[in-house]
Every structure is written in structure tokens, then in C-alpha cells.
Amino acid sequence: xxxxxxxxxxxxxxxxxxxxxxxxxxxxxxxxxxxxxxxxxxxxxxxxxxxxxxxxxxxxxxxxxxxxxxxxxxxxxxxxxxxxxxxxxxxxxxxxxxxxxxxxxxxxxxxxxxxxxxxxxxxxxxxxxxxxxxxxxxxxxxxxxxxxxxxxxxxxxxxxxxxxxxxxxxxxxxxxxxxxxxxxxxxxxxxxxxxxxxxxxxxxxxxxxxxxxxx
Length: 215
Hints:
Blueprint: E1 14-19, H1 30-46, E2 50-56, E3 60-66, H2 72-91, E4 104-107, H3 114-122, H4 124-127, H5 142-147, H6 158-161, H7 167-179, H8 184-196, H9 209-212
Antiparallel strand pairs: 1-3, 1-4, 2-3
Helix pairs in contact: 1-2
């Protein structure tokens, strides 16, 4: 079966998903997450990728990144694998591939569905039952967006900045938006888009509560 053609539009954010082979765990201890995060940081800098949101789950990862050229994301994902897979194999005395083939990706429409995809990513640990509150999960970008915890991996995107005039306002807006949860229809649409690689977009950007109250 031929590989699905990847879509690339300069400056458009993509939702990238990388799973463990046969859905096996790709992290076994806190130090594994730290090594992966370091590999990710190096790749982001080297290949000029802006990371806007992420979550590292036990057997897969989600990233929201904005590339400049068509080769930025593939090169970065290869670089992460070249550093992390040998480390993981040596640590756990295994051989062979760790990831499930090529990563999956889809373009996120900056005018509509951007914050919905970010919320989907950052609420993953809650949906999986790993935590009851997203801020309790260490390996995601939620604490930066919702709790003002500095995260050197992240670059703020204009869509997030529009949530409030100050960092406090933006965090308050983000906590309120995530507290609403995700409707089942939106979950289904995001998952289908991830499977098919189509562009994701239709939802209107939520306003800051302070701004919504203004005439």
C-alpha cells in the first residue's frame, strides 16, 4: 500500500503523533521522559521548529509544531529517534525499532481548530486516567499554559496569545476552556483527522472571559 502523501503549508501548525511499536511503552521511568525531552529540545533548535503544545504519554507522544520548510518535521523526528531509541534499547536490554513506523501528522487550521487541538493534547492524561487534573501531569505543556510554569521547550503561538492581554489572563482563559472538557464529536473528528492526515479545522477561537464581557 502506498504511503499517504504528507501535506505541508509553510507557517501552518501540524499535530504530530508518534506511537510505540505495537502500542508498547516507550517510557519506563522519569529519566526516560527527561532524555526524550532533551532530544526533543535539541531537535527543535537544530531544525527551527516552534513547539506550541505537547504531551508525553506512556506509549505515544503528541506534538503541535510549526515548521518553516517541508523537511523540518521529518528531520527533527529522525533526530529524536536517533538519540532516544539507542538509549532506550540499551537501558532495557532490547533491540530493534521502538516506534510504530512513520509518525502521523495533520495540519491544524490556524483560523479555527487550533486551540481545540491543543486542548485535546493537554487533556490526554486525564482521558487516560493517569491523573484527575491536567496540572498534575508533569510531562505536558498544560502547566505552562494553565499554571504559568515556565517551559523552555515551548514557543507561544498567536492563537494562544489572543486568549488574554497578560499571562495571568491567558492562563485563566485556558483553565476555563480545558475545564469544559471536549465534546465527543470533537474527539471523533480529531481522531479521524489523525488517521487520515487531512486538515483539521472549523471551530471558532474562544475569547478571554474578560474580553467577552466587554461591549
